Amino acid sequence: MQRLTGRVALITGAASGIGAAIARGLADEGAHVVLTDVDDDPGEEMAASVRAGGGKARFLHHDVADPASWDGVLAQVRAQEGRLDILVNNAGIGDTLPIEDASLAGWDRTIAVDQTSVFLAMKLAAPLLLESGNASVINISSIFGASGGFGASPAYHAAKGAVRLLSKNAAIHWAQSGVRVNSVHPGFIDTPMLDQARGTEMEGLMTGMTPMGRLGRPEEIAAAVAYLASDDASFVTGSELYVDGGFMAA
Question: Is 156 in the active site?
Answer without folding.
Answer: yes
